[in-house]
Known about the structure:
The chain has one domain: Alpha/Beta hydrolase fold, catalytic domain (Rossmann fold, 3-Layer(aba) Sandwich), CATH 3.40.50.1820. The termini are far apart. It contains 6 helices and 4 strands, in the order αααβαββαβα. It has 189 residues and is an alpha/beta fold. Strands 1-2-3-4 form a 4-stranded parallel β-sheet, with helices on both faces. Helix 5 links the parallel strand 3 and strand 4 (144-149).
Amino acid sequence: MVSPFLDTIAKLLAERGIAVWRFEFAYMAARREGGSRKPPPKAERLANEYRAAVAELPRGGAVIIGGKSMGGRVASMVADDLIKESKIAGLVCLGYPFHPPKKPEQLRTAHLEKITCPTLIVQGERDPFGTRAEVDGFRLSPAIGLHWVGDGDHDLGPRGTSGFTRKGNLTAAADAIAAFARGLAGPPN
């Protein structure tokens, strides 16, 4: 939950009036504390940890869940249940892992075909977990909006010669998330 990417996104969202609460899965906390670097558990096994974190959130205002990579994937797996329970208003995924790198045949999209929760996926155009060219061919629910980050990789960073900058890409991502959040809140009274 502590990385330069997440720290920057949280700061940019706070500047746009969006409070951010972070948590980390137990396996990531163990890694951070010097534990084993073994592969993460299957996403399905992390769903209960995600639900428990949502249960701890302060109430008041619209709650949008989400995460980066695996965190976004797990959030997307619990989002429909949580929205039906009126616990959340939407979902944001940063760098969604549509498939493992170099394994485009191993799609992780079946649930995304029928998700009903309002969803925004912020994805780098050349993310090895799902490039723009690949994702444009996937069947995804109409509840999903995509915000493409120019020449971005999995952390939304561009190549030096692309004409894009990391700062610009992260700012554009935060702007897209803020616009999505405002859209969920409805028009001002």
